[in-house]
Write a structure and sequence with these properties.
It is a single chain. This protein is α/β, with parallel strands linked by helices and about 150 residues long. It has 2 domains: about 60 residues, FAD/NAD(P)-binding domain (3-Layer(bba) Sandwich), CATH 3.50.50; about 60 residues, FAD/NAD(P)-binding domain (3-Layer(bba) Sandwich). It is about 20% helix and about 20% strand. It contains 3 helices and 7 strands. A 3-stranded antiparallel sheet has the order 3-4-5, with no helix packed on it. Strands 1-2 form a two-stranded parallel ribbon. The protein starts with 17 loop residues before the first strand and ends with a helix.
Length: about 150
């Protein structure tokens, strides 16, 4: 759900902050279980409630359209006055598609273990690259991949 997670001190006007995450912990595609547990506990230590292994099924509103809450996938009702969605990234691969590079239907330029695309001498790094069917939304690994490629003389 999160490609990046930034939490600031809660405003005095906001009584409770809740993060709803489909996986067992935030950043689950980027972290192993131990790292994910550390992040989860750090977020909770900031006073943020984290609901895991659930997702939003529906939004509830009054007859005049005012938000009242959320219904989760486990049918739990969560009262809410404000909802902010952080759904993830969408790889920008439109130029690659126009150039005829192989891309996944759901988005992302297909790369192998060496970050090579379907075109000779063309590499993809970062959020646009799909490796083994997944797109990872972290910039730091992209920078590391770039350094590796440039060190290898590509």
């Amino acid at each position: 759900m999160f490609c990046s997670l930034h939490i600031h001190d809660k405003s005095e006007a906001i009584s409770e902050v809740v993060i709803i995450n489909r996986q067992a912990f935030p950043l689950s595609r980027q972290l192993d279980d131990e790292g994910g547990e550390i992040v989860l506990r750090r977020i909770e230590a900031m006073g943020v409630r984290v609901l895991t292994r659930t997702s939003v099924k529906d939004i509830t509103v009054t007859s005049d359209g005012v938000l009242t809450g959320l219904i989760l996938s486990d049918d739990q009702h969560l009262k809410a006055e404000m909802v902010v969605y952080a759904i993830g990234i969408s790889p920008r691969d439109d130029l690659a598609r126009q150039a005829g590079l192989k891309c996944l239907e759901k988005g992302g330029i297909v790369v192998n273990d060496l970050l090579q695309t379907s075109a000779q001498d063309v590499y993809a790094i970062g959020e646009c690259a799909s490796w083994k069917g997944n797109t990872y939304g972290l910039i730091a690994p992209g920078g590391e991949r770039f350094r590796r490629l440039s060190a290898d003389g590509y």
